[in-house]
Amino acid sequence: MPRKRLLWQLFAALCVPVFGALVVGGWLTSVEMARLSDEMAFRRLEEVAGGIAAAAGSSPDVDAAIDRARAAAPTLEIDVTPPDDDASPGREPPGRSRLYDAATRRRRRFVVRTVGDGPAAGTRIRVGADADADDRSLLRGQRSLLTWQLSWAALAAALGLFAARRMARPVEEMSQAATRLAGGAETAALPGAETRELADLAAAIGVLHHGPVSAPSGGGHYIAVCGFTADSWIVNDPYGELDLVNGGWANQAPTAGKGQCYSFRNLNPRWLPEGAASGWGWVFS
Question: Which of 146, 230, 247, 262 is the most buried (most CB within 10 A)?
Answer without folding.
Answer: 262
